[in-house]
Design brief:
alpha/beta, six-stranded mixed sheet, 38% helix, 458 residues, 20 strands, binds magnesium ion
């Protein structure tokens, strides 16, 4: 049977792969899966999002669903709105951090969390077998507008923060939503927390003219410069749909997401020892060291935000995170949320009365290096099995590829890419030389193995 869903919903180039007729058909399949129930629908700010949002709503109505259209909003705001209202599920038209020509669709369960793999399979089955629930002409669904979702969302976020303390600190914050929909929520939260807010790239623009929608350190120089020149306390950059956040300290240093997640974890565990912290196996050992130091319990998952959300639900865990700037705060909703994460960072800065650069300098340091080796899809599995033999006798994790831990606190993860014909290498350790050596060593080993297996097949 065909596949529609990738790591994060259905993605493709708008109007080539994701045409309105295709998305309408997906809408009928989703509406059939929810048996004509109540669905909240919304989108990010991409140029093709209104077109595809109308298409998916059409399909949902055809299946007899009652649709509540929230229009443009950050992904986590739509997810929270689904959780808070008595509905069966949700759909979001978004391609998150992908380049402007892409779009996509995420399907949410009634709790606002993206549906899991087995539920995606059921929607794919309905789609490919065309087992649609088609409502009779006089029983097709209706669509209503749902407004004012932002206030209740922001109240939800604030209910988890020490508002008085943050207000008293009077932080100065530079926000870079990267022309994405995050601009609709984060500045409002900050203003209500008595922060002085400076915006760059604030206009919603689906052509993403200022920087790519993925907040990677190499895209955030303008933000870093602005923080420094204004003498602000913090800079925060969001991805295209506002669920990931990357932070800049008061000195203008950009920190990758593992640092800020480690910081949030440290303060969370100080207050809630013995808690479960969920993170993908690709996360830095920094997280492992922090969780061990502060008496938490680390649970690793496969790579992918849906994996983290569902593991959190299963274990009733309150905190999860990814190195790419996704922090999942369970008491709010166990999904990534850039606005909630910024609130948590300000909260801890206010509590310990310390700067972000100081707080991050107190964390243990790991050198990290990533690389990849090309490898045909059909032999990725055997190559991973073969390389795993190299690590016999060492502590290993085999959740997603193989991760081996060495005595000197260095570690290596070798896993098949979910999307590309490639095998990825993640190495880390306490010295740059050691990490470089590991990457070179295992890259050479992988190349040899792949070469040998390719010729065996011929
Ligand atoms: Mg995103």
């Amino acid at each position: 049977m065909g596949k529609l869903f990738g790591t994060n919903g259905i993605r493709g180039v708008a109007n080539i792969e994701l045409t309105p007729e295709f998305i309408a058909k997906i809408g009928v399949a989703v509406g059939s899966y929810f048996n004509g129930g109540k669905i909240i629908a919304g989108s990010d700010g991409r140029l093709t999002s209104p077109m595809l949002l109308s298409a998916v709503i059409s399909g949902l109505i055809s299946a007899g669903c009652t649709v509540y259209n929230v229009g443009m909003a950050p992904t986590p705001t739509i997810q929270y709105t689904v959780k808070k209202n008595d509905v069966d599920g949700g759909v979001i038209i978004t391609a998150s951090h992908n380049p402007p020509k892409y779009n996509g669709i995420k399907v949410l369960g009634g709790d606002g969390v993206e549906i899991y793999r087995n539920e995606e399979d059921q929607i794919e089955k309905i789609f490919f077998e065309e087992k649609f629930r088609r409502a009779a002409w006089n029983e097709t669904g209706e669509c209503y507008g749902l407004r004012n979702i932002f206030d209740s969302y922001l109240e939800g976020v604030k209910s988890h923060l020490n508002i008085d303390l943050i207000k008293k600190a009077g932080f100065r914050v530079v926000v870079d939503p990267g022309n994405g929909v995050g601009t609709l929520c984060l500045p409002k939260l900050l203003q209500s927390l008595n922060c002085k807010v400076y915006m760059i790239n604030a206009e919603i623009d689906g052509s993403f003219p200022s920087r790519p929608p993925e907040p990677r350190p190499e895209n955030l120089n303008v933000l870093a410069e602005t923080v420094k020149s204004l003498g602000a306390d913090l800079g925060v950059a969001l991805d295209g749909d506002g669920d990931r956040s990357i932070f800049v300290d008061e000195k203008g240093t950009i920190h990758w997401g593992d640092k800020t997640f480690a910081l949030i974890t440290k303060f969370f565990l100080k207050r809630n020892p013995q808690s479960i912290i969920v993170t993908p196996v690709s996360s830095s050992s920094l997280i492992k060291e922090i969780v061990e130091t502060y008496n938490g319990k680390l649970v690793l998952t496969k790579v992918g935000s849906v994996e983290v959300s569902h593991k959190m639900k299963e274990l009733k865990a309150e905190l999860g995170g990814e190195e790419n700037g996704g922090v999942f705060y369970g008491p709010h909703i166990p999904v990534r949320d850039g606005t909630m994460t910024t609130g948590l960072i300000l909260n801890l800065m206010a509590e310990v009365k310390s700067t972000l650069s100081q707080l991050i300098s107190e964390l243990p340091y790991y050198y990290i290096m990533k690389d990849k080796v090309e490898c045909p899809h059909n032999i990725k599995g055997v190559v991973i099995d073969e390389i795993a033999k190299e690590f016999e006798g060492l502590p290993t994790e085999k959740i997603d590829g193989v991760k081996a831990y060495f005595q000197d606190k260095s570690a290596i993860l070798i896993r098949a890419s979910g999307t590309e014909p490639a095998i990825r290498i993640y190495a880390e350790g306490k010295s740059r030389e050691k990490v470089k050596k590991m990457v070179m060593q295992y890259k050479a080993l992988l190349k040899n193995l792949i070469h040998k297996m390719k010729s065996d097949k011929n």
